[in-house]
Design brief:
The protein has 613 residues and is an alpha+beta fold. The chain is built from 23 helices and 7 strands. Helix 10 packs antiparallel against helix 11, helix 14 packs antiparallel against helix 15 and helix 21 packs parallel to helix 22. The chain is globular and about 105 Å long.
Length: 613
């Protein structure tokens, strides 16, 4: 080997090693290194190193926010790798890179599938760090979807994959994600503990990407704990690091955090400006998940300013975002990925066991005569064939059951959607037509006092029909609805009725650590029952404040409370009005209990909770 060739090989290895620190490099710097590595690999005819350079170019494009181009390059790299001699470790890294792209594109189902692929490939080559990355990727996807328990479970699995503290320290982003999980679940001690470790290790190993994320989380924890002076210098350091790295995905997150800071410390005008700037950035790079945080921060600023109309508009935008993300990432699809991963893991175990059996038999019977060895080999092959056939039959039966269950669920979902469509297209159209006809008749008969009252009543009834159909379609269009989705819709109801009752103050409080998913029928009845309780309080309480509290930890609970005069006799018997009887009937049908209790100081407290806690 010539001296020049040796120099080129060492230079190529050094550049690829630098590229491996991509999380701490500016995207343009990483791209420049990757291009140099690709040129050197071509001169040396080193196919595998050239593909590694292509992989790092894809990572650089991700950091620049060019997600579509990054994903296409990663897919090309995987195809080229599989056309020649494969490298399972590089395949796993490419799958992890594709998963990063899918999360930023809000395609969580595909991201989780990539996470399972990373784990499977990493287990084959016994690469512990790649196993940690795969589990962290799955946890990240669940975290972005707001499924906090699943996210924490996967992140803790990643943490416990190895006892090597140095290895885990180099991957400080995992500790930051665990802290975020505990923060969202309301565990203050755990979130501060892990974020301190994340910042510590990120500084030691100079992982700028993990450090900036950890500092941003630590800043938000200080704001939440009422320590804004500790938060401000951290935010300034985060901004400086983000500029050095240059990643729009996390820049949008920082803007949401800064907006949250302004909303809670008396500068909502600045908060609105920085949130709108972040929303423009998120829309430019199609960062839909970051819009959740930016819109929530924007809503907080509008609320702090007292602009209820714009607050209501932003809440509508959040509901539409939730619906959009839910459609792309259903629970059913994610469950299928979990099953697929479990089957693949068992197949890998079986393959490893077969290899162990073959190796043992080889050493045990290697010294036997050719005839005895041939007979034994034939016997073993026959036994393996029988086991394989039996296993195929078991898997085929399991797959048939799974497909049958899937078909039943799809049929139920299609029927539900058909009913919703029929309601919208038929009854909705008829109700709207009735309203239009009533308006026409009212105009013609407006001077007839005998008909005016009847026309007003007919129009009111028609409006109620349209509203009821809208609420029914809202529930039927989904396979499941979260408790926060019901809360968001109640907020819209209050926004509509509040202007007609200026003497009343309405509050909707949320104390939710586990966002329960409710079947559509139960969610519909819960929404209608809460709405009926609010209307009863408006009409009969005589109070000045109506509060709706959504609580969900180990089980959910909804409380509607007023500060009025209360009721002489609590509605515990059948001697009640139609409204309360309807509420009881809905509760019984939907599988939850409803009770009327005296308020803490005065008034009535209506409590709704599952039948079985």
């Amino acid at each position: 080997m010539s001296a020049l060739l040796l120099i080129h090989k060492k230079k190529l290895s050094a550049i690829l090693l630098l590229c491996d620190q991509g999380y701490s490099l500016h995207a343009d710097t990483l791209m420049a290194y990757a291009i140099d590595a690709q040129k050197l690999a071509a001169q040396l005819n080193d196919r595998l190193s050239g593909l590694k350079a292509l992989y790092y170019k894809s990572a650089a494009l991700t950091n620049k926010g060019l997600i579509d181009s990054s994903l296409q390059m990663a897919e090309n790299c995987m195809q080229l790798l599989q056309e020649g001699d494969t490298d399972i470790g590089l395949e796993a890294n490419i799958c992890n890179q594709k998963g990063r792209c899918y999360v930023r594109m809000n395609n969580y189902k595909e991201a989780i599938e990539m996470g399972y692929a990373v784990i499977s490939k990493a287990e084959k080559v016994n690469d512990v760090l790649l196993q940690v990355k795969g589990k962290t990727l799955i946890g990240w996807a669940y975290l972005e979807m707001g499924q906090l328990k699943d996210a924490l479970n996967w992140h803790l699995q990643a943490l416990h994959t190895t006892n090597d503290s140095i290895l885990l320290g180099k991957y400080g982003i995992l500790l930051a994600n665990i802290s975020t999980n505990y923060n969202n679940l309301g565990n203050a001690d755990s979130d501060f503990y892990y974020i301190k470790k994340g910042v510590h290790y990120s500084r030691i190993y100079q992982n700028l990407f993990a450090l900036s994320n950890s500092l941003a989380i630590q800043s938000s924890l200080h704001v939440k704990a009422g320590q804004p002076k500790l938060s401000e210098p951290l935010l300034k350091e985060v901004v400086a690091i983000r500029k050095e790295i240059g990643d729009p995905f996390y820049t949008a997150s920082d803007m949401a955090q800064l907006g949250y800071y302004y909303a809670h410390y008396g500068e909502p005008e600045k908060g609105i400006a920085v949130c709108n700037e972040g929303i423009a950035l998120a829309k430019k790079y199609n960062l839909t998940t970051k819009l959740f945080f930016l819109y929530s921060s924007l809503a907080d600023n509008y609320k702090a300013m007292g602009n209820i109309d714009l607050y209501s508009t932003v809440m509508n935008d959040i509901i539409q975002l939730k619906d959009s993300v839910y459609e792309k990432n259903s629970v059913h699809a994610l469950a299928e990925l979990q099953t697929k991963y479990d089957v693949q893991k068992k197949e890998n175990t079986i393959i490893q066991q077969k290899l162990n059996i073959v190796q043992k038999n080889y050493w045990l019977y290697g010294s036997m005569i050719v005839a005895a060895f041939s007979i034994l080999l034939f016997y073993l092959a026959f036994q393996l064939y029988k086991k394989k056939q039996k296993m195929k039959m078991v898997l085929a039966l399991a797959e048939e059951k799974r497909l049958s269950a899937t078909a039943v669920k799809e049929a139920e979902e299609n029927e539900r959607r058909r009913i919703a469509a029929d309601l919208h297209d038929n009854l909705g159209a008829y109700a709207a037509s009735i309203m239009a006809n009533i308006d026409t008749l009212s105009a013609e008969l407006q001077f007839n006092p005998n008909t005016t009252a009847a026309m007003h009543q007919l129009r009111s009834n028609s409006q109620s029909i349209v509203s009821q159909i809208g609420d029914t379609i809202w529930a039927l269009k989904r396979t499941a609805l979260s408790l926060t989705t019901v809360s968001d819709r109640i907020k819209l109801v209050i926004q509509k009725v509040a202007p007609s009752h200026p003497h009343l103050k309405f509050d909707v409080l949320e104390n939710i650590t586990t966002d329960c998913m409710l079947p559509p029928v139960q969610a519909f009845h819960l929404f209608q029952t809460i709405q009926e309780a609010i209307i009863n309080a408006i009409k009969h309480s005589g109070g000045s404040t109506i509060t709706v509290s959504f609580i969900s930890h180990h089980f959910w609970q909804v409380i509607i409370e007023d500060d009025g005069t209360g009721m002489p006799d609590m509605p515990t018997t059948n001697n009640t009005g139609n409204g309360i009887n309807n509420m009881k009937a809905r509760a019984k049908e939907a599988g939850f209990t409803i009770s009327w209790l005296p308020g803490n100081i005065s008034g009535i407290k209506v409590m709704i909770q599952p039948t079985a806690n």
